[in-house]
Design brief:
Length: 202
């Protein structure tokens, strides 16, 4: 029988990249949604002006970038929006979905900005012999948490009817993002060994 006409390599690779892009973004979306759900059940009552000391979504976003590079920005953003609609009733009193879209986007961008800053100072060696370098990753979590907390504070300042107390807000949100982020990434590397990073793409 006549052989099939070979397809151009560029066409095959493009198809694989699209499938990989979709699958990786779906995984990132799931990780962020799961992290938000798990965090929400640990908090008896959500208060937008005071964060939780164990808040895992930022860790899920950073973990997603460590696994799949920055191409999963869309997945982390969608995961943040979906989980916010499902689990964060505090959005309703802060401008609803408009507030949620902006907050989710800023939360997904904060680690990317932190990565860019760390690259500028040559501190972005997040992998060592295909294993996560927790020293640099810990600094990434701290910097991402600081940026994320600042973004949320200024956003809350513009949307909330009563202005949050800066000290209470920053201390709880910052500490919650740092602790939750580090815990999620550490557990993630143990629970998902098949997803261990194989390159130094970020």
């Amino acid at each position: 029988p006549p052989s099939e006409k070979p397809q151009p390599i560029s066409y095959i690779m493009a198809g694989m990249d699209i499938k990989q892009f979709i699958s990786h973004n779906l995984i990132a979306c799931f990780l962020v949604t799961f992290a938000t759900f798990f965090s929400s059940i640990l908090v008896a009552q959500m208060d937008s002006a005071i964060g939780s000391y164990f808040w895992f979504p930022l860790g899920a976003i950073i973990f997603s970038y460590l696994l799949f590079d920055t191409k999963v920005l869309l997945g982390t953003w969608v995961g943040s929006v979906v989980s916010g609609v499902l689990f964060l009733s505090a959005w309703k009193g802060l401008g609803g979905i408009q507030f949620g879209l902006i907050e989710s986007l800023l939360g997904s961008l904060a680690p990317l900005i932190a990565i860019a800053i760390m690259k500028g100072f040559n501190l972005s060696d997040f992998f060592n012999a295909e294993k996560i370098d927790f020293f640099h990753v810990s600094f990434l979590v701290i910097l991402s948490a600081l940026l994320n907390s600042l973004f949320k504070f200024f956003l809350m300042f513009n949307y909330a009817e009563s202005q949050p107390d800066p000290i209470d807000f920053m201390s709880t949100y910052l500490v919650g993002d740092m602790i939750g982020g580090m815990v999620f990434i550490y557990i993630g590397t143990k629970v998902f060994p098949l997803f261990s990073p194989k390159n130094k793409s970020i």
